[in-house]
Amino acid sequence: MDCENTRLTQQRKVVLEELKKTTAHPTADELYEVVRKRLPNISLGTVYRNLEILSACGEILKLDLGEGKKRFDARMDPHYHLRCTQCGRVFDIPYVPLDKEIEERLQGVNHFKVTGIQIHFDGICEECLKKMN
Ligand code: ZN
Ligand code: MN
What we know:
- The protein is α+β, with helices and mostly antiparallel strands.
- Helix content is 38%, strand content 17%.
- The strands form two sheets. It has a three-stranded mixed β-sheet, with no helix packed on it. A two-stranded antiparallel sheet has the order 1-2.
- Helix 1 packs across helix 2, helix 1 (10-20) packs across helix 3 and helix 2 (28-38) crosses helix 3.
- The N and C termini lie far apart (51 Å).
- Bound molecules: zinc ion (ZN) and manganese (II) ion.
- The site of manganese (II) ion has 6 residues, from strand 3.
């Protein structure tokens, strides 16, 4: 994909703006519901396609947390994710560098150069823990 010359269309601009407003890591469907309020004629397919282009061009992150659905994140500084198995919400947690030994070992595997990393942890959030007590 030619990202340099990929024009930021009005629709794509709105999709990106709305994703930047949330820390909820929405799916395409969830973001569509928000974008639709500003662009009533936009289709789910268009939102989906724009999210794919934005992630392919490194503008946003596409997250697969093993839920059978993709989530999107406009936060691009390195960070990890916590997913609550009870309510399904996804939280940001600060980036913790992997220790040198793990990193070196990864670099050595099949001469593979690591260019990105996504780590997520499953657990139970504070709110859900309170409800359980
Ligand atoms: Zn929860
Ligand atoms: Mn995030």
